[in-house]
Amino acid sequence: MKWRSAIVHDWLVSPVGGSENSLKEIFSMFPSPIYTLLWNPEAFQGTAFQDATVYRSFIDRLPLSRTKFRSYLPLFPMAIEQFNLAKYDLILSSSHCVAKGVKRHPDQLHICYCYTPMRYAWDLSEDYLKDAGLNSGIKGAVAKYFLHHLQDWDVESATQVDHFIAISRFIAKRIERIYGRKASVIYPPVETDFYQIGRQKEDYYLAASRLVSYKKIHLIVEAFTKMPHRKLVVIGDGPEMKKLQKKAGKNIELMGYQSNFVLREMLQKAKALIFSAIEDFGILPVEAMATGTPVIALNKGGVTETVIDGITGLFFEEQTAASIRDAVHRFEENDTWDPRMIRTHALQFSSGRFREEFRSFVETKMAAFNRVVE
């Protein structure tokens, strides 16, 4: 029996992002209509989604929704629940916000690929209020009231999901803690074929990220400013750029935003990638390892599941400049890093592996569900 399936994704405003890359692979395996809060078709010309059937919510028609859509956060639950998916047998949600909360009936199977429980409702709620200018006054009090109810909705809407798949064991633990639900783990796809081993190394360390506060790039810059004989290259742009320009020593090069081709070349030539954020999975460290480049990373979050301490990189324990400096010193004491071994390890996170595991999971769960229904 051929399943009628639908895909639900939070929003599609830019093709650049880890969740969009995972969605691309899911869509390639299960070509289906896509339901999403917002859809920017111009941004997806030339991508796998340009000819997709996409249904968008009423939020897409609201003023400034393409650029200020997070301001409509209190409306997201209502918008996602208004989609009518009654004609489908299988719902595949790709969710880091509200996509998992789409309504379903008992004769449908809902599998959620969960990047994280909604951060706006939980650990990033204060950042959301600050960025939106809603951290004080009457508007701030109203916003906090809505965020509290958003937490309740987020937990309750988890009951719409039959099976959760987490992108890491780190996220599986968050799902269990917040929703009280067990989750299987399928690591997201990484384009390891694109990130090949380079020909030679150069004498610099690399950090790359969107320059926002929680990525903690400023700690890396601070650490290397106090190591003037070691060069650091930073790729990325964002609100923290001016702050970093003031903080950076002469041994630090801020390159701004660069294409994936430049990023690949810089990863190939770097002595190591420095990674100081607490990430749900952390695609960049895997991309670095796919080029044979070791990773110096904070020993927290999803990166602890991808980097092997002493073999494909090493960890530092604290989110401080001093801890980063100590890790660099320890890294330079080890001159036996094997690029081929590091790349071989990274290949287990390839796109092909993701497709194989995800397809098998969906087909197995759907077959079992159909037997119960029949």
H and E string = EHEEHHEEHHEHEEHEHEHEHEEHHH
Please state roughly what percent of the residues sit in beta strands, choosing from under 5%, 5-15%, 15-25%, 25-35%, 35-45% or over 45%: 5-15%
CATH class of the largest domain: Alpha Beta
Give me the count of strands: 13
Can you tell me the CATH architecture of the largest domain? 3-Layer(aba) Sandwich
- What oligomeric state is this? single chain
Instruction: Give Rg in angstroms.
Output: 22 Å
User: Shape from CA axes?
Assistant: globular
Q: Can you count the helices?
A: 13
The CATH superfamily of the largest domain is identified as Glycogen Phosphorylase B
CATH topology of the largest domain: Rossmann fold
Q: Report the helical percentage.
A: 25-40%
Sheet having the most strands: 7 strands, parallel
Number of folding domains?
2
Tell me the span between the first and last alpha carbons: 12 Å
Mean pLDDT: 91
Low-confidence stretches are none
